Structures are given as structure tokens and as C-alpha cells.
Amino acid sequence: MKTAGCSTRRDAGQVDRSECAVRNCGEQWTREGTHAWKTGSGATRKTTRREDRRIVRQALVDSRVTHSTIRADVDVAIVPQTISRHLAEANLKSKRIFRALPLTPEHRQLRLQWF
């Protein structure tokens, strides 16, 4: 697109990316002849795959386990967001606690009679 004379703004709009990202990609292509991501980019992992499995297993065994309990058991300095991300990757979602138990049809009938 750059060789066709298109602007960075137009290119960014077409690929749904920021202008800065498109510009950096173009500059990398000019310098290195590639647009591939560099290896080693991003934050380093704080947990091993084994520790990741341990986090998920604890949540499966006890659904009421807290982040601090999991962190103490894994014995790695990680933040609660890391634990939440690992659980989300395993398709484990938090459950909302009931404010009250659901009423049975018999309870509903008795309640209506009481009023």
C-alpha cells in the first residue's frame, strides 16, 4: 500500500489498526524486509505451565477458593489479575452468589396466602 502511494491514515483505517502501528510496521519492512514480530517481546512469564495447571486445579477442587489462597499455595509472587487470567483461559468463570434461595412453588403459594 505504501508503494501505491496510500497514506498511513488510510492504511490504518483499512486494516483497523492505529496509525502508529501501521507506521512502525512500514518502517520495520523498510529496515528489515519483514513485518514479523520479534521473539521475546512482551512481559516475561511469572509462572510455569505446571504452576498454571495447579492454579486451575485448585479452582476446580474448591470453587470458593480465594486469590490469596491460590497465590500462597503456588508460592509465586503473582497478582490477582494473573490468577483470573489463567482461570479465564481454562473457561472457569466466577459465579454470582445468590442473595436469597429460590422459592419452590409451594413456598410461593404459602407466601401469597400469607399476604
From TrEMBL:
Pfam families: HTH_Tnp_Tc3_2
InterPro entries per UniProt: Transposase_Tc1-like
GO function term, MF aspect, one: DNA binding
Gene Ontology BP annotations: DNA integration; DNA transposition
Segments forming domain Transposase Tc1-like: 52-114
Transmembrane segments: none
Lineage top rank: taxon: Eukaryota
UniProt-recorded name of the protein: HTH_Tnp_Tc3_2 domain-containing protein
The species this protein was found in: Trichonephila clavipes (Golden silk orbweaver)
